[in-house]
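User: Run a structure prediction on this.
Assistant: Running it now.
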Amino acid sequence: MKTKSSPRPKSRNKEIQNLIGLAELRRDHLLEYLHLIQDQFGCISKSHISDLADLMSIATGEIYEVASFYHHFNLTEKNDSEKKICVRVCESITCSMFGADDLITDLTKQLPENAVIQHVPCVGRCDSAPVCVVGKRPVLNATADKVCTLVNNNVTVPSLPDYIKLEDALSDGCYKTFKSCLSKQFTPSQVIQKITDAGLRGLGGAGFSAGKKWDIVRSFPAPRVVAINIDEGEPGTFKDRHYLEKAPHQFLEGMLIAAWAVNASTCFIYLRDEYAACHEMLSIELEKLRTEFSRQLPDIELRRGAGSYVCGEESAMLESIEGKRGMPRLRPPYIAEKGLFGKPTLEHNFETLYWIPEIIRKAKEGEEEIIELRGRKGLRSFSVSGRVCIPGVHRAPAGISIHELINDYCGGMLPGHKLKAYFPGGASGGILPARIKDLPLDFDTLQAHGCFIGSAAIIVLSDHDSIPEYALNAMRFFKEESCGKCTPCRVGTDKAAGLMSEEKWDLEKLTDLATVMAEASICGLGQAAPNPLLSTIKYFGDEL
């Protein structure tokens, strides 16, 4: 016989209640509530979880399983009497290349007692390696002295970037295309056709036709939603942040055009937690935008992640937005049919939407420029880091080769360094030797060599670097970031990292592991994790 459970008592912790507010609590806002607690107290204790469970009338275990999934939530047994400053030190490929280990050693000796060091994967600033984050303030080209100065002065808040504000964007003609859509100078079909004709593909890495994606989402009944992925956690990738910090309204206009074209009622912007300044900036500019356009906008919700690379996968991101652990969904159904909250969902990477206003304007005014190199059309944004003189985001022809990119856009190799190898698509894109020098860096050109372009994150290695060392760095990253949902990825990355740490690699075992991971993992993390390993075996066997 089932008995009725007694009503859950209201929380006795007035601090938590006041912090979150008295409005009706939403289950999908769980991550936002956890962020509020973390920001306020510097940790999330058992009592915080219990109090939040009381307020939301859900099980404490349900909250704990979500909070424990994300790296940026500091779970403790009890409230810390002293709030310590967290110093996150990036250990990804490029930061490791430029002395992250030595930096950690120096910080261990010099940091005061009110600071704690946390080893973290990529923080999205590979062009300024090594990088630390003090509280929420990034420290570029970090040294122990720079970090200690900020800690000693309790400087933990990021400064806003020098970006184009709404009033200046409007003066420059931003939102004219969106206004043309609202005034019915275009039909949705016409806009979609322009995007299709321009050949715009998803610039988050998948490379799927943007116009075709819009058509597919439109084919399913309303209500529909748009979800934008700005969770670029791939080591070597930072182009989204680069453009967002300069011209946020060009992106926002592209988002609004996309939402109008598919008749979406709500837009969700999912921003990685490492981009704290961008979060503040977007919060400010979205309020201005709502005032400017009054009731002409869809609902826009800004959500922040909590340190999970796998949430860059589209369905995992949707799970996170819904207030759950960011674990990829099984397919079918695909998110275009049944996505966020079960609604047809248009998911896009930030940069894909960033170029939409420009594409439509040029098509309207007949200013389309056709740039072609080695049979590849258009331009691509390359995030370049590593052993080059001028790292950063470089927009170059899609058919460009690695030598041309380095010499014509990056100022050449660092003095005393000679090109040895490069990651063409971040940590997951594999590793190519310098001798493969004329290959166009574009979609569909690298697969025959066991690599892919992905989000065009180029990490340049020189004759000073050990290829097996950085292949291992990549595998450790995937081990740390595996969500654990599927065995091939969870066990495979752990086992591979262990075998790759040995003085001599067991090539047979590693090859078998790579095959299982690539063929049986649920999502792209596990499927692509073996690429650097296999590239090392194929091209750099003399170093094993």
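Confidence is low (pLDDT under 50) at residues 1-9.
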